[in-house]
Amino acid sequence: MLTRMARRLLPVLLLVSGLVACAPADEESPAPPGATGLTTCTKAQLQTKTPGKLTIGTDNPAYEPWFKDNKPENGQGFESAVAYAVADRLGYTQGEVTWVRVPFNTAIAPGPKDFDFDINQFSITEDRKQAVDFSGPYYLVRQTVIALKSSKIAGATSVSALQGAKLGAQVGTTSYQAVTDVIKPTGQPQVYNTNDDAKKALQNGQIDGLVVDLPTAFFMTAAELENGVIVGQLPQVGVPEQFGLVLDKGSSLTGCVTQAVDQLRGSEELKRLEQQWLAQAAGARELT
Amino acid sequence: MSVSPSPAQLDRIAYRRRQTLLSVLIAAASTLVLGVLLVVAVTGAPGWERVRESFLDPEVARDALPDVLRGLWLNIRLLFFCAIGALALGLVVALLRTLRGPVFFPVRLLATGYTYTFRGLPLIIVLYVMTLGLPGLRLQGMPSTLVLGGIALVITYSGYLAEVFRAGIESVHPSQLAAARSLGLSYRQTMRFVVLPQAVRRVAPPLLNDTVALQKDVGLVSLAGPIDAVRAAQIHTAETFNYTPYIVAGVLFVLLAAPLIAVTDWVTLRAARRQS
Question: Exposure winner among A39, A148, B124, B266, fewest CB in 10 A?
Fold first, then answer.
């Protein structure tokens, strides 16, 4: 009786223990961050996804003015240009760079990454550093309110004048945080999956104003919105907001990538790229 | 007068008791073994520490909870109104689709077209058209985004519910209709007093099942701006790059669904008992 039961149970037990045996083996532990000191940032030393190639991630679609025509591989647009400049510093030619499209949520998930670094207007914050590595900053960003010319807030000059307005922002952005932390509107802000949806709501009059970063504000009001105006830049609160490249937590490349970005900043290369691709992004009214 | 059981009966009782005890022990042991193996497999995985930090961080959960709850309140309100609206509209469409007689052909055609279209059309697309498309017309008296989103949900779900109602209506045997009509009841009275009471009772479980599904889908209106529980979790996740808020929202959704699912089970059980 019992032996028959044991015989019946045996396959089950085997199956379960098989499942456990299938659990992935330990990955080889990654080198401690920054261990690849200052001298070893050469292509031969870098442990990239594909040896000899640099894999860079960004979202799909990739928006202007950060990229051009949703083609990160064309080297045009500020972030595409920065990515290739970083690759160049690390010793990769243009042909040795491959792009992968990584949605925002995937880029920050704890699993293994498909990219060596991701460039997609990620703002550096202390909280986020718990989950991913950031390179040094490559752009200082300001949050900006845009509206339609017909909107009641189009002429606003102060933050307090925005508090009664219905404001929107893209989900997951520091623009949204700027709405809740800096403007503190009386009504709940509206949140959209993409800036495209938010733009539609702005055109429909479903929101009075939209908060985006300054270069995006310039691009939207100049090229995309027919009657769009920049209301003004929001004041900075606390540490200035900066964009950084995102790497896997504890990536062996963080040190070298940061070094490359720092060199680009030191040699004024970043400033030059900024002027080339984001040149018009100066001189929007400051909201008080 | 009491009859003492025969020795054979006593043996049988004792044997059954032993068997029951044995199966309880085996069930407990196998549950324990499986549980331990699962815990070992998950917590022993090389990425476990990392996953635990980013999905099960109590501090992040505590921070996110108030916002997620505020979002959940929106889900609950939407669910309440959309469920009522979808059930009512679904019933109407089902009644129209089951009308008899050649005069009603266009009505049947419309009702059939409705269920075909809105069961086939992805909810997201209906939501986009209703919440971001319609307001673009800039008509006077356009309802708020939330109401438009609710209408999109009602339209889509009533397509499913109409078919469930129709299945119920058609499951009532034709002899019942004939009997009702021969008693002198009008078509409307037959529907009201003979067909629908039986039909609705029969399809109550699938109706409730669709309501549970609706509960998870109402949150999709967040694509048009309002912040529901999942959106609130997404916002917190983006701030910290930590996924714990999603787990918080998930647990709340399960808790919210539990009573409805329990009612569904109870209704099904009761119906089964009545029929046996």
Answer: A39
Q: Could you tell me which residues come within 8 angstroms of residue B3 by beta carbon, excluding any fewer than 6 positions away?
A: none
Distance from CA of A215 to the nearest CA of B (A): 21
- pLDDT at position B247 is 93
In a domain, A174, yes or no: yes
**Interface-testing mutation among B34, B132, B243, with chain A (most A C-beta atoms within 10 A):** B132
Q: Is B5 helix (H, G, I), strand (E, B) or coil?
A: coil
- Give B58-275's CATH code, choosing from 1.10.10.10, 3.40.309.10, 3.40.50.170, 1.10.3720.10: 1.10.3720.10
Q: Using the beta-carbon criterion (under 8 Å), do B241 and A132 form an inter-chain contact?
A: yes
What is the pTM assigned to this prediction?
0.73
pLDDT computed for residue A138 by the predictor? 92
* A20, A110, A177 ranked by CB distance to B54: nearest: A110
The residue with tokens 């504000």 is A217
Are residue A152 and residue A226 in the same domain, yes or no?
yes
CA dist A153 and B248 (Å) reads: 37
Tens of pLDDT along A78-111? Answer: 999 999 999 998 989 989 999 999 887 778 777 7
Share of chain A above pLDDT 90, in %: 25
Task: Let me know whether A125 and A263 are in one domain.
Answer: yes
Contacts of B219 in chain A (CB under 8 A): none
Contact call for B50 and A110, based on CB within 8 A: yes
Q: pLDDT per residue over A176-222, tens digit each?
A: 988 988 899 998 899 998 888 999 899 888 899 999 988 888 888 88
This model of the complex carries an ipTM of 0.71
The per-residue pLDDT for range B93-113, each reduced to its tens digit, is: 999 998 888 899 999 999 999
Query: Is the CB of B46 less than 8 angstroms away from the CB of A27?
Result: yes
* Distance from C-alpha of B65 to C-alpha of A227, rounded to nearest angstrom: 40
